[in-house]
Design goal:
Radius of gyration: 16 Å
Mean pLDDT: 92
Order of helices and strands: HHHHHH
Largest sheet: none
Number of strands: 0
């Protein structure tokens, strides 16, 4: 836990065969992979957002959904809603393995496709879309990675009525 963190261990276990009542051979190497591919990438995306939003002097509004003028912004908001739908369905069916895989895939797409293709953008639409994606991701990943989700949510949350991601309303499933 000291080397990789509690969230990485929890994600690793909830993504393992032990959740399907099978035997698990614990592997520190696999835990390290989860740490690098999930927790570290999520933290780096969050750090990128905070650094450049602060540098640009961008301030969020209480409005939940961003204005979508760029095709990449439209794509990430649609992907975010798809994540909500998929994780909600899997957690409702007590399938943490599929839920964690959906979260992992989303984090990879957020980093690899959205953030890399949007580098250099300093407009409010980008920051609004990125904040929306991170806020929803924090809510959806809170059952699996409670500490990093709480940290991200509490730092980005501008609603004084909801102080914790664990008290926030779960995002609604909708048709895409």
């Amino acid at each position: 836990m000291e080397k990789y963190g509690v969230d990485s261990l929890r994600f690793y276990l909830m993504n393992s065969v032990v959740m399907q009542a099978d035997n698990l051979n614990f592997s520190e190497k696999d835990l390290g992979i989860v740490y690098r591919k999930v927790a570290l990438i999520l933290w780096n995306v969050y750090n990128y957002f905070v650094t450049y939003a602060n540098e640009a002097g961008w301030e969020p509004t209480l409005k939940e959904r961003p204005v979508l003028t760029n095709v990449l912004d439209q794509w990430i908001v649609a992907k975010t809603q798809g994540l909500v739908n998929e994780v909600t369905e899997h957690l409702d069916n007590y399938n943490t393995v599929k839920a964690t895989r959906a979260i992992e895939n989303y984090i990879q797409e957020l980093s690899t496709w959205y953030l890399r293709r949007s580098r250099g953008r300093k407009d409010g639409h980008f920051f609004g879309s990125m904040r929306h994606a991170l806020m929803v991701l924090a809510k959806v990943s809170a059952p699996v990675m409670p500490y990093i989700s709480e940290l991200i949510y509490s730092n980005l949350n501008k609603n004084p009525e909801v102080l914790s991601v664990h008290l926030a309303k779960w995002p609604e499933k909708t048709e895409l």
